[in-house]
Structure prediction request, 105 residues.
Amino acid sequence: MDEQFNVLKVNIYGNDYPIKGNTDVEYIRRVAKYVDGKMKEVFKDVPSEDSLKIAILAALNITDELFKERTLGKKNKDANSEEATNRLNSIIQALDAKLDDYYQD
Prediction:
């Protein structure tokens, strides 16, 4: 079974890169555009001719976003899980009360 690879040339921070992947071409474009934007954003804050420095700072910013999203996602998941558990317990208590009333009548 052969995998289909897409090859796309993208421009990131003024340089062209051929990207080969087995994912959607539009997704590759979006990822490249995001990285390009982050590098340009870093350059505004830290003007430097050293593109490696800009790339590393952009990578740190992207990684920071990822870690924050993971932490927030876990907190939201935990909060949703706790909320769901509390709601289920309330429903169970209400059903138990109704069943007790039903069988006492």
Remarks:
- The mean pLDDT is 85.
